Amino acid sequence: MLAERFFSKPKKRKYATIPSEKVKQDVPEGIMSKCPNCRTIMYTKELQKNQKVCIHCGYHYQMTAFERVESFIDEGTFEEFDQLLVSKNPLEFPGYLEKLEKDRQKTNMNEAVMTGKGKINNIDIVLSVMDAHFRMGSMGSVVGEKITRAIEEADKLQVPFIIFTASGGARMQEGIYSLMQMAKTSAALQKFSDHGGLTISIMTHPTTGGVSASFASLGDFNFAEPGALIGFAGRRIIEQTIREELPEDFQTAEFLLKHGQLDEVVHRHDLKETITKILDMHQQVGELQW
Fold first, then answer.
1. Would you list which residues are annotated within the binding site?
2. For 215, which of 63, 86, 105, 185 could close a Cys bridge (C-beta 3.0–4.6 Å)?
3. Which residues does 100 contact at the CB level (< 8 Å), separation at least 6?
4. How far apart are CA 168 and CA 101, in angstroms?
5. Known binding-site positions for Zn(2+)
6. Is residue 287 part of a domain?
């Protein structure tokens, strides 16, 4: 036994191999994606083909405004509004303009919302799509102005208005100018409704703050994507205020549906078909003959 211990061959040490820079370059960045919900790794191309819904657990990733328009609007029918409208710095907030420019370069958008007109299964609509990749979709004066103009254009064209919301709330760098957009957009929606206009709101992850407290919740139909965070104040602030622990699913789309604050939670794959059915029912077919 002693002889075996002293004269046996030493075991080889195992070393971790660090990939060379060449190997790293051979694997393109972004080729794989890990689901933040189930932690499953999948090909990014497969995820994109599935409309950015996890193929394993159904988790809905955030979409850019361009991706949303591409998946929702009939190909070749979208015409963008107010593309050159940009924010100023009315409160001279330090570094604000530089941050806006950085987000413009990152997202290829001038602001946190894209508006325009197009067709859904050959039905004319006006569309607004908020993008959380630009300043977390925060609502500044330009965001409010673009949405208001889109509502007014829908009123003028006498077509339905559809909005996808995704926002962290009012934009702090613009102070009261941001908060004023809540009243402005709400007033435009009321006028549109008085004229018989149809508004459909689809809340995506996240829809919070002043956006959830204004136009996001004022649709004739209020829908949401599965698992979307929807609420006004943050969970921790509410718990500290009421001195109670909130349910685990508090401020999710499913929680709001259960408590009567949404009409339906709609899977992204079913969204276009669901909206089309509603639009078909509300098509103007002339006066009823009695």
1. 35, 38, 54, 57
2. 185
3. 86, 87, 135
4. 19
5. 35, 38, 54, 57
6. no
